[in-house]
Amino acid sequence: MSRIVRIAAAQSGPVPRSESRSETLDRLILMMRQAAQQGADLVAFTECALTPFFSHWWIDDQQELDSYFENAVPGPSTQILFDEAKRLEIGFHLGYAELADTEEGVRHFNSSILVDATGSVIGRFRKVHLPGHSEHRPDNPFQNLEKRYFDVGDLGFPTWRGFGGIVGMCICNDRRWSETYRVLALGGAELIILGYNTPDHIPEHPELDRLVDFQHQLCMQAGAYQNGCWVVAIGKAGVEEGVSQIGLTSIIAPSGEIVAQSTTLEDELVIFDCDLDATRVYKDAMFNFKANRTPEYYTAITEQKDARLP
Ligand code: ING
């Protein structure tokens, strides 16, 4: 039995501050059309696909900061994307900065949305693991101010039925935390879609620069294998406002193998026929959660007081 979903991971090259939202949307729509022409069921765009990754610089003007956020998706600037997807009968994933009016008041989230081929919203995710710092670090070549500009996601890690299977989402730094994959897999996820903006230099830890590509792939390959999931990871690549970001947009099979990967740092489609039934040997045998996990033991036990880090 096969449940094939043809997925097009639509890597974005740099989005300069000088580019208008409609120019950026034109780039996404071009890739959506190319994906549809190649028979894709789903085109997946990256994290903060509509804007430069503005967390990379200090913004003290609230109006400028809010200009990078969407008040509603679908909304004025993204309706064109929904209309074109419906016309092409293709589903899509989109990462964007969300200005949300919640019961606790106005919140700013680093979000993503999953939309089916009829243009209906399947689900939304809000980034949970916010890396970086909230204060200005003027000595760094660039900032990562996600802890300042975004609130921690308040939706958890939901999963939804879609594209013939069960789908979950996460965003960028979420992919580095093993809990992300396990919680999504406990929710039945067979396919996990994530966008990322990943610089190839870590100002506070330059000794890790040589490992950025390896660790980007390592965390997702492990997550895919240990949870029997497809992982589709879409980058914002290239030098964006002076920050050099990795490409390596990847489609990873439940075996942990990278089955397709980008080769440029520009707008580029990476397409693969993902058989959701390829998850079964891992979910039913190698990592059968019901048969082989013992959650009652999954608490840290410290018999010697000094065995636990301070
Ligand atoms: N960015 C980076 C991420 O890929 C980072 C932060 C870069 C962490 C390099 C570790 C190494 O996780 C975002 N946006 O989360």
What does this structure look like?
- This protein is an alpha/beta fold.
- It has a single domain, classed as Nitrilase/N-carbamoyl-D-aminoacid amidohydrolase, CATH 3.60.110.10.
- The chain has eight helices and 14 strands.
- The strands form three sheets. The protein has a six-stranded mixed beta sheet.
- Helix 6 (212-227) links the parallel strand 8 and strand 9.
- Helix 1 (21-37) runs parallel beside helix 3 (79-88) and helix 5 (178-186) packs parallel to helix 6 (212-227).
- The chain is globular and about 55 Å long.
- It starts with a strand and ends in an 18-residue tail after the last helix.
- The model has no long low-confidence stretch (mean pLDDT 97).
- It binds D-[(amino)carbonyl]phenylalanine.
- Residues 131, 172-173, 176, 196-199, 202, 212 line the site of D-[(amino)carbonyl]phenylalanine.
What structural class do you assign from the helix and strand content?
alpha/beta
Count of discrete alpha- or pi-helical segments spanning 4 or more residues: 8
CATH homologous superfamily caption? Carbon-nitrogen hydrolase
For the biggest sheet, the summary is: 6 strands, mixed
Tell me, what's the shape? globular
Question: Care to count the β-strands?
Answer: 14
Spatially, the strands of the biggest sheet line up as 5-4-3-2-1-14
Q: What integer is the average pLDDT?
A: 97
User: Which stretches of 5+ consecutive residues score pLDDT under 50?
Assistant: none
| CATH classification class | Alpha Beta
The tally of structural domains comes to 1
Give the percentage of residues in beta strands. 25-35%
Question: CATH topology, anyone?
Answer: Nitrilase/N-carbamoyl-D-aminoacid amidohydrolase
Order of helices and strands: EHEHHEEEHEEHEHEEEEEEHH
Distance between the termini: 51 Å
| Rg (C-alpha, Å) | 19 Å
Bound molecules: D-[(amino)carbonyl]phenylalanine
What is the name of the CATH architecture? Answer: 4-Layer Sandwich
Percent of residues in helices comes to 10-25%
